[in-house]
Design goal:
The complex is a heterodimer of chains A (about 260) and B (about 300). Chain A is mainly beta. Chain A has one domain. Helix content of chain A is about 15%, strand content about 35%. In chain A, strands 3, 4, 6, 9 and 10 form a 5-stranded antiparallel beta sheet that branches. A 4-stranded mixed beta sheet of chain A has the order 7-2-12-13. Chain A has a 3-stranded antiparallel beta sheet with strand order 5-8-11. With about 300 residues, chain B is mainly beta. In chain B, about 10% of the residues lie in helices and about 55% in strands. Classes of the chains: A mainly beta (about 260), B mainly beta (about 300). The interface between A and B is medium-sized, with 33 and 37 residues.
Chain lengths: ~260, ~300
Amino acid sequence: MIFKFTKLLVIIVFSVYLAACSSSSTTSSVGTDVTIYTAPSPAIAAAMDAGVKTFTNDSDVSITLTKAYLVISSATIETSCTAFSAAADGLLNILMPQANAHTTATPTSTGEPYVVNLLTVDGGLSSIGSLSPPVGDYCGVDIDMLAADADATNLPAGTGEPDMIGKTLFIEGTYTSDGGITTGNIAVSTGEPLQNRELLLNALMMISAGSLNGTINIGINYDRWFDAVDLSLLESESAAKAGDNYNQLLLNITNSIHQI
Amino acid sequence: MGYLYMIRRSIILIGCLFASPLAIACSTCMVGDPTLSLMGAEKPYENRLRLSLNYLSRSEELGKDGFNKKTIDERRVSADLAYAPTTRLMFGLSIPYVNRQLESYNLTNEEVTALGDISITVKNFMQEKEFLQTHMYGLLGGIKLPTASEAVDGNGVPLDFDVQVGQGATVVNAGGWYAHYSYPYFFYTSATYHVASEGYQEFQAGDALVYNATLQYASQHNAAYYLGLEGRSSQMNTFAGVDDPDSGGTIVFFAPGFIYTIMQDLILHATVKIPAIDALYGDHEEGAIFNIGATYDFQIH
């Protein structure tokens, strides 16, 4: 008799188990979130609307930009910032092999390159990526600028727009100096990597259980790109890539990145 | 020596027959071997049907502390059915119900409880003898089906892959096994190779070789102790074609356990599996596995 009960009990248990298998539950909690934004942000010139932008450099040369694109390949938030400095030092040795900007995303680094259009409205923020980092006190952000690949976000499209795949920087415009006596074109296009910008944040960004979210707003002082630069040497793409003058332009671009 | 061994086996078999009024129906009597066996290691007889309910708990850690560490705790109950239509073939069905909890470096906590991936197995018996076998061997095969649904959050976004109770992939496996019955000793070994299709979130499991060897000793008629080694050697997994550096490698568990007969045809078993050889790639740690279960033999012959 006991064996009959055993069999019945086993069948009941099995049946209950099968019935339980039909139920399911899911729970999830929100984790950390840090979003990094960029915006064109003139340092001296008055803020301008979207479109062609005109300003003067440190030598009172009037510069008009008709196209200006810069690739931010990744932004990495850091908890150790002893090597970070306020500005890049000296002239660059930019003899680095060309590399495409598709790094792997990590909890502290965006992995998808973003093409910044410097001719959008000044101060208008655009997200270049979101992170979900571990808890910590973040003191800086390391910004890399490498050539875009086909997976880059915000690639220019439309008639007359440049193909930014394989490029880090593209500038077109004109300049006028000596009271209008001297005029010329500006044509800069390169796929070479720029020196990365190790930007110290104005204040620690503390991510914790009580403070899950953070934002970092990065401004680009495009109106300082042509300071101490001989614009007559930037009139064609091939001529532009020459020596210290070109290096100064690239250094100015790296230095133009700051927190707003 | 072989003659004396046969006499001893026969005495034990006769003892089984007289141990209980219903002993003619007992499963060990049906196979003429008093060896207690877990699911998958039993001797078949025509229309043998076994049901097992098992509970398992385990945990693992992936990633680096302070950067991308995830801790996964899993508890699993599975109902396993084994049926032998003949003495040469045995089919198995495993229905798991799984709870997985994930604690992530970014303070995300996720938990899923649901039906897991159901497995079907087939085992064949190629030895010559049909009864009172000492050596047995054959082939194994199986398929794990993507019956577990992909868990999503309130916005329909899939949860982390590591908290999912199933892979979303079909996994087939094939291999062989060998068993040696010499009461009170019993030895069993098997090895199977597993290949998976692509699963959820563009996950592709690496091919894996799963193997084990177990030695069992029956201290008395209704109790046995065993010591096993269970291992897994696998390739790295990939997500969207990119290697997951914290996956793959080799791990071998040291697995002591015991079997106890509660009553005729109902056995209880418990095992703890402790990592003995840990050669997993990257930042990947697997903890001890605890397993307890009960197996019942239905008398349908």
